[in-house]
Design goal:
53% of the residues lie in helices and 0% in strands. With 172 residues, the protein is mainly α.
């Protein structure tokens, strides 16, 4: 797609084609006369759609501060710090030789991140992409980590009956 065929950015007016330059001059002259006659000029309509060609990076939905700007930096980013603190504590527990408990805590922290992303309108830097994408990513990763940590050998807490047959069929 070429730049000429793209939509203008929000609030920008579409440039007139070169062949219509005389028509555009006539329109601008008539709008100037209507402006001088006291008729109110309509503002350019702004579109809520994103442009096809972006010129900068849009902040993710919900990516504003989770606390007022007068609060300290950690207080403004408390949702991200809560999730990262849970993951860090889980990694510490794993390093202290409690693999299952640590990985369950890591997975639960990611699930909590998905819940925070869903429940709060502003989550600071916990917002990476759109709300749906963040919730899906945090939720799926957290659920898979919890499920795998509950199935880990020896002595799994959760046993899936058909999983052993699938492993025997594929590994033989």
């Amino acid at each position: 797609m070429t730049a000429e065929a793209s939509e203008p950015a929000a609030g920008e007016q579409r440039p007139a084609p070169p062949s219509a330059s005389s028509a555009a001059a006539a329109v601008s002259a008539s709008s100037a006369s209507s402006a001088s006659s006291g008729a109110p000029e309509r503002p350019a309509r702004k579109s809520r759609r994103f442009p096809l060609i972006t010129r900068d990076t849009a902040r993710p939905e919900g990516g504003g501060r989770a606390a007022p700007g007068s609060a300290s930096a950690p207080a403004r980013q408390w949702p991200l710090l809560a999730v990262m603190g849970g993951v860090g504590l889980g990694l510490l527990i794993v390093s202290l030789d409690a693999f299952r408990a640590g990985t369950v805590l890591i997975g639960l922290s990611l699930l909590a991140g998905a819940v925070l992303r869903w429940a709060l309108p502003e989550v600071g830097m916990l917002a990476v992409r759109s709300r749906f994408t963040d919730m899906l990513t945090y939720g799926l990763l957290g659920a898979v980590i919890v499920l795998l940590s509950l199935m880990v050998q020896p002595d799994p807490w959760v046993k899936i009956p058909f999983l052993e047959d699938v492993v025997h069929f594929t590994v033989r």
